[in-house]
Amino acid sequence: MAAKNAAIIALFTLVVAGVVAATIIIIQKKNRYDNGINPSQKAIVDLCQNTYYQESCITSLSKATISSDPKDLIRTSFKTAMEELGNVIKRSATLQEASKNPETAKAYQTCQKLLNDSIFDFQKTLERTDSIDISNLSLLMDDIKTWLTGALTYQETCLDCFEDAEADAATKMREFLKLGRELTINGLALANGFSNFLESNDLGAGRRLRAHKMDLINKEGYIGEHWLDHAPRSRRLFHAAPGDIKPHVTVAKDGSGNFMTIGEALKSVPLRCNETYVIYIKAGVYEENVIIDTAMWSVMFVGDGPNATKITGNKSKVGGTETFWTATVGVDGDNFIAKDIGFENSAGATMHQAVALRTSGDKSIFYNCQIDGYQDTVFAHNHRQFFRDCTISGTIDFIFGNARAVFQNCTLLVRKPLENQRACLVTAEGRTTVNETSGIMLQNCRIMPAPEYPVNDPTYKTYLGRPWKPYSRTIIMDSYLDSLVDPEGWAPWNVTSAHLDTCWYAEVNNKGPGANLARRVAWPGIKKITVNEAGAFTPGQYMVGDSWIAGKGIPYDSGLMQSAPITMPTP
């Protein structure tokens, strides 16, 4: 057994070397490596046969084999990658200053933030591999694939920022990112290949809860909170009534708390801290745009109820703000949780993209929240997200992004769109490659018309979603679909009908007048799966939720809910 374990760890180390080496040339064009592969590197060549960009894979891995100590090489390669990426960020800043086009300048500025966040995901990937325990490999690989997907998502979001910028600027940034994206995609392919190896040989599963408690805090402190370490306190917080909570700070508009605004309260949050930091927000309407920064870990917002405590803003794309920055609340820090609170973007349907809540941080939980907007209400942007017992309203793409997001027992209210729109779309998922871990899962949800939706006017149509990116993935299971859902079910992204062959959409065990599959579109991307196959997309399996959701004390179903009753919303 010891020899077998040693072999697995050796293979794992090789794969991790490839994964991290795959980030080395982020946006770097000038380096050229010797393409000669000696016999001792045959394993690298064999490994790279499973990647999409084999030449880039071989050259990057070959550089990683010049040392006899893989871990030292990984650290050296990583530092080199950070230096190179830092140089690119500086070049982007120079181009931003030189640009005379405001949209282009803003795009460069946003890309700098996103590429820094991409660096952070690479850092977490590297630091996560410091302790290699045979009983933890499945959880470890889940983290690695999540963060590599995250790194790629940040790069893709950077490119999205140039939609309204000057054409030559968009071309320039795409060229900067070309090689980096290729190598990150290769890293995902290698990580996915190793995960498949573990599964096919029934290796590395271990006890998930016990495995998750392994000591991952490294001396540089890059990894966020490990949920089970503070689960008892978190359970008390979720079960407690608002008046019984003992927060670190209180926000109250009437001056009865420590702060009168949420933004001021966030300045008190200790940075990179593993202990849950509770901000109690008393009843009231808080008109402010709030950002939970990347360094703000384990922040918890607790309100007096989803309709009593509301955070509202009105930034929009039409109003001159990039979609990414329109969010009333933007969550970049890992392990954010929110309970009994409302999020709103009040810009209105005429202002088009206007995000109420953007979630980018890893392992975020939203419980009993109200999230209101029109187009792009919830930007489930990145990493792992869990929404339970929430109500979300909107018109077009009102749940979108590239997170691995599960919405469980939520009510999705379709509002009346503009007269010239006439079609509403619930989801728009943004997976760009087949190996990304991302996807939107709706489980035991209700898709219903909002009171103002014209249910008796057949010229208004509502679709379950449309494929925003090539490998868009959405699964709807155990849910209630009301009659407003069009019989075709799904809509193409645009008139070119892009991504219909490569998207991945499935409906399983749904109920209601809109759940009839007889007239659904017959794209190659529409999948017919069984209830048991759908189990792979439940939170316990799909996002290893038992290791970070189950200990929180909120209602949580790890597996299938096909026998669960459909609870109709209160009018």
UniProtKB/TrEMBL annotation:
GO terms for molecular function: enzyme inhibitor activity; pectinesterase activity. The keyword Disulfide bond applies. NCBIfam families: PME_inhib. Residues 1-21 form the signal peptide. Its main location: secreted. It comes from the Eukaryota. It catalyses: [(1->4)-alpha-D-galacturonosyl methyl ester](n) + n H2O = [(1->4)-alpha-D-galacturonosyl](n) + n methanol + n H(+). This is Pectinesterase. Acts in the modification of cell walls via demethylesterification of cell wall pectin. The active site is at D397. Keywords: Aspartyl esterase, Cell wall, Cell wall biogenesis/degradation, Disulfide bond, Glycoprotein, Hydrolase, Secreted, Signal. Pfam families: Pectinesterase (PF01095), PMEI (PF04043). Its EC number is 3.1.1.11. It is an enzyme of class 3 (hydrolase). It is found in: Secreted, Cell wall. Pathway: Glycan metabolism; pectin degradation; 2-dehydro-3-deoxy-D-gluconate from pectin: step 1/5. In the C-terminal section; belongs to the pectinesterase family. One of its GO terms (biological process) is cell wall modification. Residues 39-190 form the Pectinesterase inhibitor domain.
